[in-house]
Amino acid sequence: MQKIFIGLWLLGVCFLHTSCEKLLDKEPSDKLSNEATFADIDGARTALVGAYSSLLTTELYHVNRMVYPDLASGNLQFSKTTNVKMMDIYSFLQDAESSSMNATYSKAYNVLTNINNILTAVEKFDSTNLVVKRIKAEAKCIRALLHFDLVKLFARPYSYTPDASHDGIVVNLKPRFYNDPLPVRSTVKETYDAIIQDLREALVLFTSTNGIISNGYVQNTFNFTSAASLLAKVYLYKSDWDNAYTYADQVIRSSTYTLMTRAQYVASWTNKTPSAESIFELNLEATFAGTTLGTYYGDNGSDQQYAATDDLMNIYSATDIRGRSSLFIPKGNYYFTGKYTGVSTKATPIKVLRLSDMYLIRAEAAAHKNDLLQAGKDFDAISMRADANLTATSFSSPQQAIDAILLERRKEFAFEGEYMFDRARYKLGVRNIAFTDYRMVLPIPKASTNVNPQLKQNDDY
């Protein structure tokens, strides 16, 4: 049987999950073969724990994936001049050889490889077993999330060409062997098709809201509702307004989650307990000792370096609870966000999907469907929650609604890794960079194109 090697990644997971003790007895090597690792369902369960843990690294959701869209788009500025991360991104000087985001590309594909190993291995188990179905469903959701992140970072948006036939990313749906043909980039349409297929298949596989990981909150692993929420967002980025509306509406109407009140909002960012509206968030293990997003965003550490720009601060009214009087922390000449202020094991979980997003997705889709009444209701649910002085909105045109919703998305999801992508969806540039500028998309790492001549580089890099 041909072997797929998981490597040191899974060994690292063994310190986080007790069942790894059995795994290490199966093959005394620094690289555990596929057969030994997945000899039983517990092995697949442990590997899935490792996949979730891998999302919380500095290359992915603990720094790069969250910081890049806000730093490049004008929401963030540096609060110090030395020992800073991603200065090349801020200055739009990234190149294929040394871009700060190269590590994100490599890490994402590393996790995808491990996810594919899981999905391949569990095929030998009873397909009617509820745990097996659950492992498949969650793994497909993680795979969809990573492909979605990669296509937003390293390819032009879906709307760039009329049929989305422009270069997307390498879609990685199965384990790769050394003698396999070198991969090529799929089109953006093909990439989105693969993401949607994974999420639709996951929805069929989910049988309950209980994850296969026993500890933690239900929001810490994918389930039916979070898969539907991610699917709504994927359709939003595809400009498929009917499906974006349908899935966002489904999540909202399920009543599984509820919007926080104005009084609850600020405090929800200061502890590890999921809020009423948190759908999917990444939480730290009790033994975590690495760098967190709060290390760089917060006002309480030597590594703090990302502060809000004046441009961002000025979009909030004086009575908006998301503004400077409530959710920002003044220090010297800068304002730091109150989101993710905790560090180490006290860090606030990374909020990947929130019910607020579903309301604004439904609002945006409704505007494109010329349902201005629904667009206004959903817009008000978020804007009036944040600002008690606002009155009900009455949009007079779809464009007026869309403009207001995009501004509201900037207010609501600042520091959550959204703004760059929201502007790109509408072919809008950022700061002094036009949408047509090649730097609106990241380069494919040179290390990857060097070993694979068939891997096409993004234009002008």
TrEMBL record:
Protein name as annotated? SusD-like starch-binding protein associating with outer membrane
Give the species this sequence originates from.
Chitinophaga skermanii
Ranges where the RagB/SusD domain occurs: 299-428
The record, for SUPFAM superfamilies, names: TPR-like
Question: Does Membrane count among this protein's keywords?
Answer: yes
Superkingdom: Bacteria
Family matches, as Gene3D superfamilies: 1.25.40.390, 1.25.40.900, 2.20.20.130
Q: Which InterPro entries match?
A: SusD-like_N, SusD_RagB_dom, TPR-like_helical_dom_sf
Q: Where is the SusD-like N-terminal domain?
A: 81-236
Q: GO CC terms for this protein? A: cell outer membrane
- Report the leader peptide range: none
Location(s), subcellular: Cell outer membrane
The record's keywords, sorted A to Z, are:
Cell outer membrane, Membrane, Signal
- Family the entry assigns: Belongs to the SusD family.
Answer yes or no on keyword Membrane: yes
Q: Which Pfam families match?
A: SusD-like_3, SusD_RagB
